[in-house]
Amino acid sequence: MLIQYLLILAVVLILIFFLRHHGTSRSGATVKLGFALFLVFGVFAVLAPNQVSRLASLVGVGRGTDLVLYAMVVAFGFATINTYLRFKEIELRYARLARAIALRSAESPEPSDTENDGTLH
């Protein structure tokens, strides 16, 4: 069936896209555009369900609702990968920040009260 090839291609393209372009401003714009197109498809599915059924039969799916479900599965995979990569990026930023703070405090330690000779002044 054509839909199987289309779904597998969509998943592969999403993986390649995120692994190669995540974190760039271009990928952020592409994600927003893809999300907007998905929302337009959702509105189209609500307003013209017969047309979605026709589109489904063109790609080898029995019903329009199944086609919408398949689109949701791909969108969920997209969102999951996006969230995972964003968390991974945030963890890396925190690690870099912690290293910078540790290096800064190791270079110039703040004087403490225990560094005096033990006498009261």
Features:
121 residues, mainly alpha
Write the topology of this structure.
Blueprint: H1 2-21, H2 25-47, H3 49-59, H4 64-107
Task: Provide a descriptive summary of the structure in words.
Helix 1 packs parallel to helix 4, helix 2 packs across helix 3 (49-59) and helix 3 packs across helix 4 (64-107). The chain has helices at residues 2-21, 25-47, 49-59, 64-107. The longest helix has 44 residues, at 64-107. The chain is elongated and about 90 Å long. It has a domain at 2-81. It is mostly helical and 121 residues long.
Helix content: over 70%
Number of helices: 4
The profile of the biggest β sheet is: none
Number of strands: 0
Average residue-wise pLDDT? 81
Strand content: under 5%
Structural class: mainly alpha
Low-confidence stretches: none
Order of helices and strands: HHHH
Shape: elongated
Radius of gyration using CA atoms only? 26 Å
Distance from N terminus to C terminus (CA atoms, Å) equals: 88 Å
Outline of the structure:
It contains four helices and no strands. The chain is mainly α and 121 residues long. It is elongated and about 90 Å long.
